[in-house]
């Protein structure tokens, strides 16, 4: 299977050597070039799970550039540690997550050791951040790279070999690195003796190259063959969504919903609703078997608009009220802030007995004044 | 002496032959038919703007009113061609304008269209009616303003997927108040704001408007007003479909849409709040075309619910967020489906909800009329492809793109040779094929063996050796466009049969094993080809080492020699002193004809749908006994296949050709 591998190397080179691509393209493609320029195993590892949500990631990375280049990596790292250990309902708060979701299944399929999932996720997720953080200018790579190595080792102390492998590999030729990728986590773990040995890694990889070569090609200019107009347009539209909603477009934003007296929890994806009214009627359906009297009827009546005042009415008039835990951990009445802000801050939902929730109202009002 | 038929009669008969290929065939029957066809041809298609010059176009077809021109190679769509490669329309417009051609319609694809060109069009061609720009760039709203302001009879302004420099919306207000002729207006690709008042006024004074596609900046309430004014619309492209909080607006919209009973094609939804999708349910039952491929906002249940209302769909373009389950809904709902395109919503990501082989199998089982497919998916299996081939043997276009380009069958870990083999074997009418996934030479053996009607083939990351390409070149007799990237094809494959390239419109090879020397050889052997090397590396000096691999090679046949507008990164190989108007000698041509004739008269006659290959030399054939000796035989065959309505045919000996020559044989009669 040497021809495909050859193809990989060639392509990487040709990417690097085509400056005009740079002018014609948007952020994404420039980033490809950047990645190849970097010649780092980190950047190639990105492609192990064909770079999901590149756009979002990249934009975030760009935004963070406002600070000093080196300063952001440790910060990112903490986020990632949180992600990995984090609970499900924290997911949506981190824009990186959607891409992680995409990665998990694909990398699992290819990584033989299924029980190493946590690790491979970490690898992918982390290296992605690194890849993007350093993609812009190759000179930054060494600096920032060394900065971030230590936090990484700290963060994943269980796998000390990992960062070492990264460092060593990053010195190697683009082609070889491109071929490491996906299998690397498995290699590192399964073949400890060889883990830091680049040559061995590469050899293992050649035997597996059917699964790894494609990943390299995912970086190739012009593949998949989607009209650049289409790519750009879809990218803009998801960016617009970002701006509008203050969150990554397609990402789901699941929060748990509990109800006083109900024997189970449910989860709802907040991104699928655009107003309080929609959320309310959806919850009403979900918990209809437990809702009594007024809450249900109110919900139905207020399907179109469930304004703040209505919610207050609900509080007094109905048996149940909808409350949420914000990111500070405080319980608030749903409806106290504009919907977009609510989506950004809501961590949990609870349908409380109205009598229990009475104390919440003033606090909620206060809080909203403060936030405004 | 063909003048037993007055020219007018023949011309009238020819008017009924609209297909380019048939017109080309007719023009080959005899000298007189050629002449009449030449003067009566109104529509001309040119698949490559560098294959012929505008002067020769006019010399051959002085009555042309509608011109279709294509510029950059297809791979330009995917950023594989430098943006400054060429494909300028201005030289064409300039010549057409100078010669006083009464151009009425211009359709351009992948060309660089300057504002200057648009202005020239608008000021020169007084009866100009139709401008269709697809994947073009180089112009701005100023050019559009000129078209709007000056083309008094404009019927069609169709802008599809163009990269427009300037997005100001003033151009819409440039349509004069007297402009009432619009039938089709599509500006979905423009990014900027438009003058909504002007748009409303324009729509309300265009009683014949059938097709209207709006851009992102046209909000829902404007849409509602437009629909109230143009309930006759057949084709609607919705821009922004963002839910207005006041229920009044959505009620109004519902009401407006219900009046539009004639809408058969729906597209757009560039911005969506999916809540109010139910407003369009009433018209879904009539839809034959639905394009949601720019509508990432419609997904999940909303999408499937919507599709469940579209029972008459023939053409569906959609994003892969529909998922395999959603495709199952398509399969059970859309029994009339003929064309399906599934685009990736996130081409560079793993795509959580991307589609797989399952969805394709479901659709193929549920939609027996399916004949055109573009399918971006995560994975594909041989078994699935074999099933698809069995279920839908009618494919004409089959383009499969596995996002991971050399991914094998995930079940067996085998290459997808057998699967694609099954497709080419059972789909006898296949004209266009795109391959992806792990593939060896074997699949090309199948393609060469079975894909007899194949006209365009796209190959990426496939094959093991030169053999792959050779199978295709030797096997696919009707191949017109071949595009290859990242395949191990080298000089041996390239040089095996260079004559073949004259029968084709173009060949693209990038990141293959072809060397500079190989390309030079082709250029030397085939003076009728332009062999272009695209070198985008930083090297300012071209490495003249023949052994050097070329990054990108694009070759195409041409009658006008080297183009003069190539940028520095493009080298055109061959003898630079060659005359610009190179024409192959008559002998070359006869040899050529004999070669082509081997594969049957269709191939011989229809070298190229627009017949330009023959055009330059055409005048000579009538005087050459050798050529006309076999021409009429073929010619009558063409009449037989083209003129199904023909009730009477008389064939007269032509004095021009000399009495002794056996110009028509029994064979021609039989075919008739």
Mean pLDDT of chain B: 84
Q: SSE string of chain A, helix = H, strand = E? A: HHHHHHHHHHHHHHHEEHHHEEHEHH
Shape of chain B: globular
Q: Give the largest chain-chain interface (CB within 8 Å).
A: A-B, 63 and 63 residues
What composes the largest sheet of chain A? 5 strands, mixed
Helix-strand category of chain B: alpha/beta
* Biggest sheet details of chain B: 21 strands, mixed
Give the end-to-end Cα distance of chain B, rounded to a whole number of Å.
21 Å
Helix content of chain B: 25-40%
Count of individual helical segments of chain A? 21
Could you name the key traits of this structure?
heterodimer; A: 372 residues; alpha+beta; 5-stranded mixed sheet; 5 strands; elongated; disordered C terminus; B: 672 residues; alpha/beta; 26 helices; globular; Leu-rich_rpt_Cys-con_subtyp (chain B); F-box domain-containing protein (chain B); COI1_F-box (chain B)
Notes on the structure:
The complex is a heterodimer of chains A (372) and B (672). Chain A is α+β, with helices and mostly antiparallel strands and 372 residues long. Chain A has helices at residues 2-16, 19-24, 27-38, 41-48, 54-64, 72-85, 97-110, 117-135, 138-155, 160-169, 174-180, 184-190, 198-207, 209-217, 228-245, 276-286, 294-301, 308-317, 339-345, 354-357, 360-371; strands at 254-259, 266-269, 320-325, 331-333, 348-353. Chain A contains 21 helices and five strands. In chain A, a hairpin with a 5-residue loop joins strand 3 and strand 4. In chain A, helix 4 (41-48) packs across helix 8 and helix 4 packs across helix 11 (174-180). The model of chain A is unreliable at 1-218, 241-250, 291-316 and 362-372 (pLDDT under 50). The chains are: A alpha+beta (372), B alpha/beta (672). At the A-B interface, helix 1, helix 2, helix 7, helix 14 and helix 15 of A face loops of B. Chain B: Keywords: Auxin signaling pathway. Chain B: Residues 5-46 form the F-box domain.
């Amino acid at each position: 299977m040497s021809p495909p591998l050859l193809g990989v190397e060639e392509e990487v080179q040709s990417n690097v050597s085509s400056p005009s691509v740079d002018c014609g393209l948007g952020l994404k493609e420039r980033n490809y070039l950047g990645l190849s320029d970097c010649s780092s195993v980190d950047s190639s590892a990105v492609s192990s799970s064909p770079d999901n949500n590149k756009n979002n990631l990249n934009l975030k990375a760009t935004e963070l550039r406002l600070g000093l280049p080196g300063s952001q990596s440790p910060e990112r790292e903490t986020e990632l540690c949180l992600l990995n250990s984090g609970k499900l309902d924290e997911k949506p708060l981190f824009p990186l997550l959607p891409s992680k979701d995409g990665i998990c299944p694909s990398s699992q399929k290819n990584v033989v050791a299924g029980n190493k999932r946590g690790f491979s996720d970490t690898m992918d997720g982390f290296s992605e951040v690194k890849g993007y953080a350093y993609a812009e200018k190759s000179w930054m790579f060494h600096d920032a790279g060394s900065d971030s190595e230590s936090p990484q080792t700290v963060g994943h102390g269980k796998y000390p070999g990992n960062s070492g492998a990264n460092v060593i590999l990053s010195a190697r030729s683009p082609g070889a690195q491109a071929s490491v990728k996906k299998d690397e986590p498995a290699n590192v773990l399964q073949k400890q003796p060889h883990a830091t040995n680049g040559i061995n890694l590469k050899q293992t990889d050649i035997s597996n190259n059917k699964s790894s070569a494609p990943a390299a090609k995912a970086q190739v200019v012009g593949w998949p063959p989607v009209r650049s107009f289409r790519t750009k347009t879809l990218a803009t539209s998801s960016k617009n969504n970002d701006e509008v909603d203050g969150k990554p477009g397609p990402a789901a934003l699941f929060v748990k919903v509990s109800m006083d007296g109900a024997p189970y929890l449910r989860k709802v994806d907040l991104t699928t609703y655009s107003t309080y009214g929609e959320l309310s009627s959806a919850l009403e359906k979900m918990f209809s078997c437990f809702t009594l009297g007024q809450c249900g009827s109110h919900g139905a009546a207020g399907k179109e608009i469930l304004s703040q005042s209505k919610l207050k009415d609900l509080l007094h008039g109905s048996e149940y009220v909808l409350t949420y835990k914000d990111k500070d951990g405080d319980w608030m009445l749903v409806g106290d802030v504009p919907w977009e802000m609510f989506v950004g801050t809501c961590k949990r939902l609870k349908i409380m007995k109205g009598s229990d929730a009475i104390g919440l109202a003033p606090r909620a009002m206060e809080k909203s004044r403060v936030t405004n | 002496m063909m003048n037993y038929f007055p020219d007018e009669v023949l011309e009238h008969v020819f008017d009924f032959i609209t297909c380019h290929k048939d017109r080309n065939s007719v023009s080959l029957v005899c000298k007189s038919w050629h002449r009449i066809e030449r003067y009566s041809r109104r529509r001309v298609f040119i698949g490559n703007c560098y294959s012929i010059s505008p002067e020769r176009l006019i010399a051959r077809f002085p009555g042309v009113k509608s011109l279709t021109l294509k510029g950059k190679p297809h791979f330009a769509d995917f950023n594989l061609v430098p943006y400054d490669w060429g494909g300028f329309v201005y030289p064409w417009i300039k010549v057409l304008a100078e010669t006083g051609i009464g151009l009425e319609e211009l359709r351009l694809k992948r060309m660089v269209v300057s504002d200057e060109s648009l202005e020239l069009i608008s000021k020169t061609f007084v009866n100009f009616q139709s401008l269709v720009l697809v994947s073009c760039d180089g112009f701005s709203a100023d050019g559009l303003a000129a078209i709007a302001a000056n083309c008094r009879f404009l019927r069609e302004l169709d802008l599809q997927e163009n990269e427009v420099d300037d997005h100001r919306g003033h151009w819409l207000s440039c349509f004069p108040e007297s402009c009432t002729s619009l039938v089709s207006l599509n500006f979905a690709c423009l990014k900027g704001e438009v003058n909504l008042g002007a748009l409303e006024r324009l729509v309300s004074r265009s009683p014949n408007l059938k097709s209207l596609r709006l851009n992102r900046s046209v909000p829902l309430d404007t849409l509602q007003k437009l629909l109230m004014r143009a309930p006759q619309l057949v084709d609607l492209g919705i821009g922004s479909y963002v839910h207005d909080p006041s229920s009044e607006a959505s009620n109004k919209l519902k009401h407006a849409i219900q009046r539009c009973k004639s809408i058969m094609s729906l597209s757009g939804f560039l911005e969506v709040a999916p809540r109010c999708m139910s407003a369009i349910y009433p018209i879904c039952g009539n839809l034959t075309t639905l394009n949601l491929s720019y509508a990432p906002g419609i997904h999940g249940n909303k999408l499937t619910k919507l599709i469940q209302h579209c029972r008459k769909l023939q053409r569906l373009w959609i994003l892969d967020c529909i998922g395999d389950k959603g495709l199952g809904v398509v399969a059970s709902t859309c029994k009339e489906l003929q064309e399906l395109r599934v685009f990736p919503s996130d081409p560079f990501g793993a795509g959580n909800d991307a589609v797989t082989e399952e969805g394709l199998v479901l659709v193929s089982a549920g939609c027996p009329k399916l004949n055109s497919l573009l399918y971006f998916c995560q994975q594909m299996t041989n078994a699935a492809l074999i099933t698809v081939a069995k279920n839908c043997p009618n494919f004409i276009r089959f383009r499969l793109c596995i996002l991971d380009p050399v991914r094998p069958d995930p079940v067996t870990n085998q290459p997808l040779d057998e699967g694609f083999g099954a497709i080419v074997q059972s789909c006898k009418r296949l004209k266009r094929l795109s391959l992806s996934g792990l593939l060896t030479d074997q699949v090309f053996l199948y393609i060469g063996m079975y894909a007899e009607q194949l006209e365009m083939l796209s190959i990426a990351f496939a094959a093991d050796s030169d053999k792959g390409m050779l199978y295709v070149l030797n096997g696919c007799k009707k191949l017109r466009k071949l595009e290859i990237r990242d395949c191990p094809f080298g000089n041996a494959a390239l040089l095996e049969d260079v004559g073949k390239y004259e029968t084709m419109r173009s060949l693209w090879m990038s990141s293959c094993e072809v060397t500079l020397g190989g390309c030079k050889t082709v250029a030397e052997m085939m003076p009728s080809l332009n062999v272009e090397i695209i070198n985008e590396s930083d090297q300012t000096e071209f490495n003249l080492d023949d052994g050097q691999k070329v990054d990108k090679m694009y070759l195409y046949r041409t009658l006008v020699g080297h183009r003069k507008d190539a940028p520095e990164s493009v080298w055109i190989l061959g003898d630079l002193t060659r005359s610009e108007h190179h024409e192959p000698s008559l002998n070359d041509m006869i040899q050529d004809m004999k070669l082509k004739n081997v594969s049957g008269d269709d191939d011989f006659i229809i070298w190229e749908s627009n017949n330009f290959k023959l055009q330059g030399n055409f005048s000579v054939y009538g005087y050459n006994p050798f050529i006309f000796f076999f021409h009429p035989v073929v010619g009558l065959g063409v009449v037989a296949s083209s003129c199904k309505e023909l009730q009477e045919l008389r064939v007269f000996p032509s004095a021009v050709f000399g009495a002794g020559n056996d110009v028509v044989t029994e064979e021609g009669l039989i075919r008739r």
